[in-house]
Amino acid sequence: MDANMISTPDINDRFPETKIITGFISYGGASKFYGPVTTVNCFEDNSLVRTGLSKVVESGVLVVSGKKSKKVALLGDNIALMAKRNGWSGIIVDGCVRDVEILTDIDIGIMAIGSCPKKSKKENKGESNVAILIDKVEVIPGNWIYADLNGILVSDDKLNL
């Protein structure tokens, strides 16, 4: 069965070992998304977010640890459009996004803890493809994300749905 047909509550019922992240707001045009994880660990600098999403992938999910900062946005419409064109299925930002009225028209999953109109610094600071922690849940490159309006599930591997 296609993961797009199953909700995260049903997935978690079948796979209770999946880790759960809640409290994120859906901003993208796709309210449901899944795929293998790539990570970025950054603080108020979205340089590595842009670099990561500039890579062409097949249904990947970029998970960004922005340390819950609400001072700047780590993702806006231009980077989200680039991500969609490059094959990403979703982006999760433990921080803020901007251009929210435009993000809803882009057919990609985007979840964040809030929005902020201010753009971030661009100093190439941070780390890519490292284990990150979001709300005490470890997210590792190569994990799989299953996300919808109910929440975010993190699985060690792709689930046989």
Fold and architecture overview:
By secondary structure, the chain is an alpha/beta fold. It has one domain: Ribonuclease E inhibitor RraA/RraA-like (Glucose Oxidase, domain 1, 3-Layer(bba) Sandwich), CATH 3.50.30. The protein is 17% helix and 34% strand. It contains four helices and twelve strands. Strands 1, 2, 3, 4, 5, 6, 7, 8, 11 and 12 form a ten-stranded mixed β-sheet that branches. A two-stranded antiparallel ribbon has the order 9-10. The longest helix is centred in the middle third of the chain and has 9 residues. The protein is globular. The mean pLDDT is 96.
How many helical stretches? 4
Indicate the overall shape.
Answer: globular
Approximately what portion of the residues adopt beta-strand conformation? 25-35%
What is the H/E order? Answer: HEEEHEEHEHEEEEEE
Largest sheet: 10 strands, mixed
Structural class: alpha/beta
Structure summary, number of beta strands: 12
Low-confidence stretches: none
